[in-house]
Specification:
Blueprint lengths: L2 H23 L3 E6 L4 H12 L3 E5 L3 H7 L10 E5 L2 E5 L3 H10 L5 E4 L21 E6 L5 E7 L1
Parallel strand pairs: 1-2, 4-5
Antiparallel strand pairs: 1-3, 3-4, 5-6, 6-7
């Protein structure tokens, strides 16, 4: 390919993909590790995207990611995320993730242990529109946790 053609291709690539790149630039990027084919994980990823996050998804490595992020297994769920240096474990509402990013607590991250009905990704007709109370917990660096937000 000659120099002129390479230059033209570069310009076309920039003008074609630049709007997408700039649209994604203002969104926090969340990297997510989950089990392949897990429906509730897929539903949560879709929910997170609709609530202001750009995502990069890995269909394996959830347990390894949790260990790397120093999140104790007792707070585990079916997927693990990383956003701006914070762990996000399980079906955490986007509202609490945005809150954490704004408040910047000195913590490992936040979690919704297990898979409570009514939490994002575990809600709607697929789950009989049932709901149960659950807590979003703030996990400290020493492994202890406090309630960050309760959902009834």
């Amino acid at each position: 390919m000659n120099a002129r053609r390479r230059q033209l291709c570069s310009v076309l690539a920039l003008t074609t993909f630049a709007p997408f790149a700039s649209a994604q630039a203002d969104k926090p990027i969340m990297e997510i590790w989950k089990s392949p084919g897990c429906g509730c994980c897929e539903d949560w990823v879709t929910y997170i995207q609709k609530n202001g996050f750009a995502v990069k998804v890995h269909d394996q490595g959830n347990n390894a990611a949790r260990q790397r992020l120093n999140l104790p297994g007792m707070y585990g769920s079916c997927h693990t995320g990383l956003v701006s240096g914070y762990a996000v474990e399980g079906h955490v509402p986007a509202r609490e993730i945005h809150r954490m990013l704004k408040e910047k607590p000195n913590a490992v991250g936040i979690a919704v242990p297990a898979m409570p009905l009514g939490s994002p990704g575990m809600d709607g007709p697929k789950y009989g529109n049932r709901s149960e109370p659950y807590d979003v917990i703030l996990v400290q660096h020493d492994g202890n946790a406090t309630t960050y937000q309760s959902y009834k």
